[in-house]
Specification:
The chain folds into two domains: 173 residues, no CATH class; 157 residues. Helices cover 47% and strands 14% of the residues. The protein contains 13 helices and ten strands. The protein has a five-stranded antiparallel beta sheet, sandwiched between helices. Strands 6-8-9 form a three-stranded antiparallel beta sheet. The chain has a two-stranded antiparallel sheet with strand order 7-10. Helix 7 packs antiparallel against helix 8, helix 8 runs antiparallel to helix 10 and helix 11 packs across helix 12. The C terminus is likely disordered.
Length: 365
Amino acid sequence: MSRDARLAAHGAASTALALRSDRGLRELLDAGTPLGAGIGGRTVLLDVEGVPVFVKQVRLTDLERRPEHARSTANLFGLPAYCHYGIGAIGSTGFGAWRELAAHTMTTDWVVAGAYEGFPLMHHWRVLTDSGAPLPEELADVDRAVAYWGGGSAVRGRIEGLRDSTASLVLFLEYIPDNLHDWLDVRIGAGGDAAERACAMVEDELRAGIAFMNAHGLLHFDAHFQNILTDGHRLYFADYGLAISSRFDLSRDEAAFVGEHGAYDECYAVNHLVNWLAVALYGHPPADRRAFVDACAQGTPPEGVPASIAALLLRHAPVAAAMGGYYRAFQRESRTVPHPLGTIGPVAWPGATNSVDNSAAGKDR
């Protein structure tokens, strides 16, 4: 879709939604096509005057609804910063609906201003009251989830707040049908030039999109391939449930956390890319995948794949090996395991020089 057509659809949907009452929006949601429900909220597909609209309903807790907290981007529950990592064996609770709204506001403004196209537009948002919703399966055992995420009262307060909430922040977003996981799987299955072109586009778009977000103070923290959308020409970074920005109302510790994690998104993304390709190309289960990534990190060329994809795997395997070691320690040992970002070095995007010492990759594992 051209930029002009995209903005025209955005304008039409935005106006139509803004003109509906709360009751009218509820009726529209009730008539929509359910897409799913998960830790981030319930999703629905709507038709708004011929424009397909993706809806995400994010639980809004009573604490967030207090007048003094309306639209606040502060860490209202006082959650530990490690809850930003989207890598736990049990999903994180997220840091609140207002932060997610703020991230969508920023990214939509960037698209409208022509600064960067790689985000789904937010057409409208509304707070709608309801009779409540059950906790997602991952958090349903509250004691287990609290214990996993450190056992603190802040985590318990957040989960119980979600459980007891009687309202949702409803986000009406641009509908981009394909996520990167499904789209890339088809291209890899086709093999040959299609696979090579797709991998080249994905690598370039990951670099460009993450560089833009991070340069503007936004850290995504959960850029796996089901949270990234594509039209086959570019990537669109979506789902900001774990995102944080230097422009949020941050505590001193949170500001330091943002400053320390400027390289996290790109390391996360290339780790996901390497491991995803190890499964898509070779069908490796976890143990074999780890051995494969280790071998690539040591410079062993992968076999049976096009040269450009082999080069991509060799380029990013050192970071993937180090990140994989951290993931396993985080999931199995402690949420407070120190992150190795300071020892990984920059991601080796095409044309860049990778400062990772391959012989040391993954020593912490």
